Amino acid sequence: MPGNQLVPLPQFPCSQSPTESMGSFCSRQQPLNEVDSDENIQAAEIDRRIAQETKTEQHIHKLLLLGAGESGKSTIFKQIRLLFQTGFDEAELRSYTSVIHANVYQTIKILYDGAKELAENEPNSLKYVVRTDNKEIGEKLSEIGSRMDSPCLTKEIAKEIATLWNDTAIQETYSHGNILQVPDCAQYFMENLERFSEVNYIPTKLLILQEDVLHARVRTTGVVEIQFSPVGESRKSGEVYRLYDVGGQRNERRKWIHLFEGVTSVIFCAAISEYDQMLFEDDTKNRMMETKELFEWVLKQSCFEKSSFMLFLNKFDIFEKKVHRVPLNVCEWFKDYQPMGSGKQEVEHAYEFVKKKFEELYFQNSKPDCVDRAFKIYRTTALDQKLIKKTFKLVDETLRRRNLIEAGLL
Amino acid sequence: MSFSELKDRHVAATAMVNTLRDRLNQKRQQLLDTDVAGYAKSQGRTAVNFSSTDLVCCRTLQGHTGKVYSLDWTPEKNRIVSASQDGRLIIWNALTSQKTHAIKLPCAWVMTCSFAPNGYSVACGGLDSECSIFNLNSQVDRDGNLPVSRVLTGHKGYVSSCEFVRDQDTRLITGSGDQTCVLWDVTTGQRISVFGGEFPSGHTSDVLSISINSSNSNMFVSGSCDATARLWDTRIASRAIRTYHGHHGDVNTVKFFPDGQRFGTGSDDGTCRLFDMRTGHQLQVYSQQQANNDQDVPIVTSIAFSISGRLLFAGYSNGDCYVWDTLLAEIWAFGGHRKVI
């Protein structure tokens, strides 16, 4: 190439005074020994502080939660919070009331609109036609559900929702929920309407009833983080973890994923019950295929070359029930699946098949130099707190072992 | 009208827009008889008359413990603010290399920073979808950190880029992953205008970079994942003044040319381009010849012009920094960091 001149960029030690070639910017050529000594002290103090903070941070392991929308990752995040921190305080619980109400309205809207759509398009359409005297309620609820701000859930509205929910057409729609975007906890919402509509309803202080909060789907923008220590508060006995969930970013992941370069571990959540469902954003795309693509993409990112991978095969409880009703091979990725039998054995067989698929995917997409990064698969049901606690203990063990290996002690 | 009829009409309309766009492109190609380099060479211009010792690294500022994502100078060019993956903003005295402030940010995932024209404040933004302002004269807290003096909230996606408006210390423009740019009033924290988003002619994907015109601070340009750059007038939020096509990949960085009549862009497609602001023409492409296949082309992550505009500094994902002669579209010098710029 003509006219190229290779210019190596030498390093100038700080004590050297500016040279002529720097041009007009540096007209204030102050020899360094005349610089205000206050400035020197301040700069030294800053350096000291940075060094100290960096040393403290070395003991903190960063964990990044990733997964497609609806993979259950935000629920896992909340679970970790409940398990290792003090849980939600009352003010925060109270703030979830309107969220629960909004979720109720959205759910019944999806069901009612879904019934209408099925009645129009399905061959066996009569079973999706809502009763005439419920239609007015349906239209009203559908309108409410489309608003940005939902009204409070009153006893009257709760009764109307219950009536509509009990309509056979709606029940029929619910059982064919996979082609619509019916949330997993629809039944839970519908069965607890009376409680939700109590005037003083706060998703309650009782730990068990915090299930309400876990069921609610909250959209976050930005990134949420929690810092915790799995084994009590003492930093000496356990590692300190910081878990990040980049929840609500509906944009190009590739533009911010590199910010997380060097995290200790990526916790990837895949909802294995979604093999027959379509995306919210694009109803021609299968959710499992989307998860597969996302996992492949994450594996290929050079910023995670040194990070451990923890794969949570999530929503196992829904998977368990679905496997009998809907064959795995409706999903293209699982098209070579051969059912073996029935009952519990079949569930295990199906689960092992899916697990193997993910394992193959992992090894196909990991570069040779990533061979010694840890990779573990866990079967999870994000709503089951005991299971999450147990799972996390295993994750902690893996990471501690990893730490020791890297330090050359194992 | 039924849903499927609407869908059909949408498909037809999109096809029509694409056809019109192609025709527009063809017309442009016909009118564009040469590029900047072709013209310059035909006029007998020769390479820049500096020698290799005129471009030297005069300072290496060390102190960040993570990748440096962004930096900005004060208008007097004597101080620098830098933002890093270690979750800190560091303010430097550019002449002495001393740090004057170090701010541990509440949200470590910072992507951009900017110095206020008066030199008293700095702004930063990132994955928290907010833009935080710090007043450098405030009292530090027990840990030696500056408190946040204002937070600009409202974006629904990460803040990729921010810049204070030159002659007004109270105004700031941000670019965001939510596909919009916003003009803020820093003193009240309110959004003055939103560019794009619900309003038509906005970007159709994440906004990655913005640059305010140095000659006319009412104009700014934004670069986006939708492979275009768009020109905006801050007084007219309802639509973009112009959209600039040409790149084949995300436009990661945009910078106005010193005279304010044109601007440069850098993209995932490995090229930098120079666009004329008023006509929309792509004046020049700055592209490295690659013998091997496209997958190895390093992407352009960051650019800057020299004061005269004769030199275009471009940072690439492989750690290289090329200095282009903007007139002749040749690489004039080369240097590099050890990792991605």
Task: Summarize this structure briefly.
Chain A is of the alpha/beta class. Chain A is built from 14 helices and seven strands. Chain A has a six-stranded mixed β-sheet, with helices on both faces.
Protein described:
The complex is a heterodimer of chains A (410) and B (341). Helices cover 44% and strands 10% of the residues of chain A. Chain A has 410 residues and is α/β, with parallel strands linked by helices. In chain A, helix 2 crosses helix 14, helix 5 packs across helix 6 and helix 12 packs across helix 13 (343-364). The two termini of chain A are 52 Å apart. The relative contact order of chain A is 0.12. Chain B has two helices and 24 strands. Chain B has helices at 3-31, 36-42, and strands spanning 68-73, 79-84, 88-93, 99-104, 110-115, 121-126, 131-135, 148-152, 159-164, 171-176, 180-185, 190-196, 207-212, 219-224, 229-233, 242-244, 251-256, 262-267, 271-276, 282-287, 300-305, 311-316, 320-325, 330-336. In chain B, a hairpin with a 6-residue loop joins strand 9 and strand 10 (171-176). The chains are: A alpha/beta (410), B mainly beta (341). At the A-B interface, strand 1 and helix 1 of A face strand 3, strand 4 and strand 24 of B. Strand 1 of chain A pairs parallel with strand 24 (330-336) of chain B, so a sheet runs across the interface. Chain A: Residues 1-25 are annotated as: Disordered.
